[in-house]
Amino acid sequence: MKIALNSLLLVVLVIFTACKDENPNGNDVNSTHSPNNSNSGELLKPKEYEQEIEIVFQENKDNTSLENKLLQAVNLCNPNEKDLKNYLVPACDSKFFKVYPLIDKNSLETNFLVLCRSGVQGFPMRRILVFTKENDQYITTNTFLADLVGMETSKSSEYKDLIVQFMDTDENRFECRYVWREGRYAYDKVMKINGNKIKAQYLDSMRVEIGREISRLKLSY
Questions:
Q1: Range 151-159, long-range pairs (CB < 8 A, 24+ positions)
Q2: Are 221 and 141 in contact (CB under 8 A)?
């Protein structure tokens, strides 16, 4: 299966719609942050998603009291930890976590996701954890070993669509859309590979192959 996917990637990559690639941040696996150069005179890159997300945890603003409360409620952090070098039992701090509402700000306390920095709790890459509240208990609906690169208003649900970027063992980057279905997020399609858009005639075949690769590598569950 891996050989077949690599062969298909080689064929499709040479006929992608060209677009500028982004280099991952070497200090935080899955991160695609690229510093802006305000003196370059270059045109601003047009938005590709309704809400584009690019988190550099070293520059992340402080969590709100509600966000820290939620992180504690789902047992992701230690409220008594003060050492910001402790990744295994992390403090409730924006150095390690970023919280997003799944519907809107007013629903944050009942439906939210957490983007975890690489290295937190021993995981070598970034993770996305999706939580909803049922019967006064938080449940984890999805776990992605991936980075969050965008969110958009859904056409079929009150829950926002997620644009998630996975990385395989060969460091190929798959940018995929997930939509809310039957109480959890479900894979919809692949949007880009290695920063390049896929031509329409290859979308269906690549959707299937990338979906299989995500499952094979257990990057989503």
A1: 151/49, 151/50, 151/51, 151/53, 151/100, 152/49, 152/50, 152/51, 153/50, 154/179, 154/180, 156/180, 157/181, 158/103, 159/102, 159/103, 159/111, 159/185
A2: no
Query: 3-state DSSP call for residue 203?
Result: helix
> Per-residue pLDDT tens for 159-180?
999 999 999 988 899 999 999 9
The residues with which 78 forms a beta bridge, in sequence order, are 91
Two tokens at 62? 């402080």
206-221 pLDDT, tens digit each = 999 999 999 999 999 9
Taking residues 46-73, report their average pLDDT. Answer: 91
Contact 217, 144 (CB under 8 A): no
Give the number of other Cβ atoms within 10 Å of residue 29's Cβ: 18
pLDDT tens for 96-155 read 999 999 999 999 999 999 999 999 999 999 999 999 999 999 999 999 999 999 999 999
β strands within 26-126, DSSP E: 51-52, 97-101, 111-116
Residue 198 has a CB neighbour count (10 Å cut-off) of 23
CA-angle at 148, arms to 142 and 151, nearest 5°: 90
From first CA to last CA, the distance across the chain in angstroms is: 20
Predicted confidence (pLDDT) at residue 13 exceeds the cutoff of 80? no
Q: Which residues contact 35 (CB under 8 A, 6 or more apart)?
A: none
